[in-house]
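Example record

One chain of 195 residues, shown exactly as stored in the release files.
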Amino acid sequence: YGLTVDVSNAPPMMCEDDAAEGPGGNNDRASAAPIEANAGQRRMICPMNPDWYYFDADAGASVTIGAFFPHADGDVDMRLHMPNDMRRSATSGTNDEVITVEALPVGGRYFVEIYGFRDAMNAYDLEFDLGEGVECAADRLESNDALNSSEPLRPELYRDLTWCGDDDWYKTDVAAGGTLQVYITFTGEAPGMEA
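Predicted structure tokens for this chain:
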């Protein structure tokens, strides 16, 4: 076989960390930087070097997180990690990535991960807006927030239930070989609502 080697004299592309990296970096959840202190700033994503941020919020609060960048220079993607292990992602092929949640499902510490798709690098403008929490009135079946306080589920239609972001548990008996069908319908946005 033949082998041809061509060495270019062009300098390698350099990627310099931004001010949010700090001495410990903000490359993982443990070293995440506060997002409020970095909002409105231009930040840099480097290959194999994600940027992590955190913020604390109450259940029901609204949040919008944006990373604004020219896609032609490198694709930047984003994930919102919630305290209940649910995630929201923004991974489009457009210039900007924005995640908006009208009502956060639980209170606690949230993490934002910003990374380059296929190790892309690019500068991005970070925006963050956290709105007031809204009061969520518990429904008549509370407190069914855990396995040991599950609400007995009977074959009927349960109307006007309210999900406040915490778990709602139900239980019922099903004979071997039987079929259980449960249908859930809701109005409005239910971020991360799963059954």
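Notes: Residues 7 and 13 are 15 Å apart (CA to CA).
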